[in-house]
Give the backbone structure.
Amino acid sequence: MQGLEKLMLEKANALLQSGEVDRVIGWKKGESYYDVSPATFTKDNLEGFVYNCFCGANLSKYLVAESKKEGKMLVFLKPCDTYSFNQLLSEHRIEKEKFYVVGVGCNGHLDMNKVYAQGVEGILSMSEDENNLIVETVYGQKIVEKESALLIKCLTCKSKEFAVADETLVVGEMKPANPNRFEEVEKLESMTEAERYAFWKEQLSKCIRCNACRNACPACTCINCVFDNNASGISAKANADEFEEKLFHIIRAYHVAGRCTDCGECSRVCPQNIPLHLINRKVIKDINENYGDYQAGAEVNARNPLVNYTKADVEAKEVVEGGNK
Amino acid sequence: MQEIEKNQKKPLIVAFCCNWCSYAGADLAGSSRLSYPAEVKIIKVPCSCRVNPIFILKAFQRGADGVILCGCHPGDCHYSEGNYRTRRRMGLLFSMLNYFGIEKERTRIEWVSAAEGAKFSAVMNDFAKTINELGENRRLEDLRCKD
Ligand code: SF4
Ligand code: SF4
Ligand code: SF4
Ligand code: FES
C-alpha cells in the first residue's frame, strides 16, 4: 500500500501543480494508523495525505457537495466506488467535468474491529506489507493477515473493474472479485418464512436509528429526506410506534432499489453491525433473476429496471416465489 | 386509511382497485348481487400504478392483515402501461417483505376487468379466506422486538 500511497501523492502533486485540478479529495492521517478520515487538500497543503488498508470509505458521496463548488477536483476511487460515481452521474447529482477520476487498485480494506478481535491490544504503531498488517504493541509484535480482517464488503466484492476512470494506479495484481456474492442471500432464501422472520427480528432489533446507513449511502442523496420530515410518521429517533423501525428499513432499502451499487457502505458504517447490504443485495438478485442482469453504476444513464418494464414480465407472485422458500 | 381501526376479531383487508377496471368490476359484482366479504375495504385509485409502495406499508401500519392490489389486465390499462410498472414495482416489494419473513399470502396482485364482477367476488372471497386462516398480521408489527 505504501507504493500506492506514494504514486497517489505524486499524482496529486503533479495535477495540482499543472493546474489540471484545484482540489484533491483523499484521506488524512489521524491520531493512529487506522484513524484515517476523508479530507480535501489543496496545492499548498497536502500534509497528512495518507492511503492505507483502512481507507475503506466510499468517497463518492462527498462529491455531491463538491460538485457544486467552483473548480475541478481530483478524486481517488476504488473499483467499488466507481460504480457509485457513475450512478451519481446518471442521477445528475454530480457533473463529470468537475472531477478527474483516478482509479486505485484494490485488494480489500480492513475492519479494525476484526483486528481487535484477534487479541491485538496496547497498540504502539502499525505498518503493512502486501499481505499482512504488522502491529507493534506493548506486548511485542503481532502480525495480522489482511485476509483475516477484511471488511464484509470486501469479502463479497462484486467487481474489480473500474466502471469509470480517467486513469488508473494499480500496484501489483488485483485479486479477483467474489464470484458468488449472493451466497448469504441464498442462505436466507432457503430458510422458512418463520426462520427469516426470526433472523431479521434479531438483526433489526439492534438498530438504534442513528441514520448512519442513510447518511453514508451514495444512492441516498435526496436533499429533503422523508426520514427528516417530522410529519411523515417515520422520522423520529424515538419510535412513534412499533411499526416505525420496520418502515425505516423497508423504505430505505426499497428507495435505492435498482439504484444501489452494492458498495456495502450501509453495513460498513452501521454501529450495530446489522447486515443491511443483505437486504439490498436481495433486491439486486431479484432484479437479475426476473428482469435480466443489471448492475447500477456499471453504465452511465442505463435505464433503472424499476421503470424498464417489458410486456412479458413475470407476475409479482412469481418474483416472490422464485427466490424465497 | 386514517379511519381504519384494527378489528380484533375479523381480519382487515385493504384492496386497492383502479378506477377503470377493478373498481368497475367491484361495482358489477355489487349490481349482480355477488357478495364479497365485509372485511375487505376498497380504496379506489386512478390506476394501479398510483399505488406507491408506501401505501401498502401504511395499510399494514394501520392494521391491515392483507393487502391486495387490483388493476386492469396487462395490456388493458387505461393509461396504457401503468400496470406494467405496478407489476415490477410490487414484485420487488412483495419479495422484500417475504424476505423479511412476512407471509407471502398477505400480499397479492390480481387483474380484474370491468366485466369480471364474478372474478372480483371470487378473488376477494378467496383472499379473505386465506387471510382468515393466517390470522392477524403479527410479524410485520413485531419485526423489531419491543422488550
Ligand atoms: S469492495 Fe472490492 S473494490 Fe471495494 S474496497 Fe473492497 S475489495 Fe476493494
Ligand atoms: S446504521 Fe445501523 S443502527 Fe444506524 S440506523 Fe442504520 S441500521 Fe440502524
Ligand atoms: S444501499 Fe448500501 S450497498 Fe447500496 S448503494 Fe447504499 S450504501 Fe451502498
Ligand atoms: S387504469 Fe387500471 S391498471 Fe391502470
In short: The interface with chain A takes residues 53-54, 57, 60-61, 74-75, 81, 84-85, 87-104, 107-109, 139-146 of chain B (CB under 8 Å).
